[in-house]
Amino acid sequence: MASLLTIYQKLKLKQWLILLGFWIFLAIIISNQIYFTSIKNGLDVSWLPIFIDQLPIWFLWMCITPTLIFIVNKYPFEVSNWLKPLMVYFLTGIGVLILLSNLTLIYMFTIHGYIDLTNTSFSEYLPYFISRSTNDFLIYVLVIMTVVISRNYSARKNHQINTALMKLKNNQLRSQLTKSQLQALKLQLNPHFLFNTLNTITSLTLIGENVVSINVTSKLGDFLRRTLDFEEHQLVLLSKELEFFDLYLDIESIRFKDRLKLKRDVDPKCLGYKVPNLILQPLIENAMKYGIAKSKEASIIELKIGLNDGFIELELFNEGPQIPEKGILKKGIGLTNIETRLEKLYDKNHFFEIKNDTLRKGVRSIIKLPISRN
Fold first, then answer.
1. Where are the alpha helices (DSSP H) in the chain?
2. Tell me, what's the pLDDT at 194?
3. Is the C-alpha dihedral spanning 194, 199, 205, 207 positive or negative?
4. Which residues of the chain have a pLDDT value below 70?
5. pLDDT, position 346
6. Would you tell me how many other CB atoms lie within 10 Å of the CB of residue 343?
7. CA 31 from centroid of its chain's CA atoms
8. The whole model's pTM is what?
9. 158, 252 in Cβ contact below 8 A?
């Protein structure tokens, strides 16, 4: 108990503000959904009262979040030790649901007067509790899973960095490759992608799309597990790289609903060749962030992979805003990392270019690599 109190006491103002901002952001999303649903149903409502009604609910979740972080840190979930932590999370979840679901219902009934709690039997109250606790359970699982993944990711990343730093002492070539790998590790978890996906899961849960919410949660878990399983090998089979590419787009397709359209033309002969690990990830993230997400009319992502004069050619097209004709393409850490890794792996024997598509409104990324099975 003392340790738990210490966690709350040690939280700095900045950390509290981050938690507050996150849960307020969710309150805004849910308030928008309730508001537009009410308008659609012909109700005369105002947005601000709805938002104010939502704040206490998410404030409760904000207050309980440090407790969940404490539980995960005290009982870390690991492959070699999973049963005890899982039982602790389960029992904690029961306590959280009993507390938060009941407090939320009491608050909602008091504010809106749906039922009179003083004259309500247990059998009348139970359906309300089951409905509310189902939604709260999915939110609880989401929070616990996020904390567990973040903790394991940090531990794995620190271990990989420490291992890499030890290898730096061996020779200069290994030093250069390891440095490139450390830069690649920074790209493995895009915070914007994770944040948007968590918002999508929460929104789906609160509007009752529980099956879709569970599906997205499962895909996010697979995506993060693939990210955490990032190997030391610089090269992987193209077939493995495409599995990660498809998983990313599966999640994004749910976020953008029916808008996202993937066109894919991959020569089967290329699947057995090796390409740099996570080479497509910065390209597709760049295409989604600066292409699809920037224009409501943009929808097409097109991937072509084939053989061309002894090279394997990877070509990714996305609809959306083009690069200004006289503008300079701003290369963030993702694109810069691609250039660095390709230079270290292939010297001058490769090609990498991002340019406007002359026939369609969009941008095309092209990478040509020497054919390799080793």
1. 2-10, 13-40, 47-74, 83-112, 122-167, 172-185, 191-206, 210-228, 238-255, 281-290, 333-346
2. 67
3. negative
4. 1-4, 114, 164-195, 224-233, 326-334, 374
5. 87
6. 14
7. 23
8. 0.52
9. no
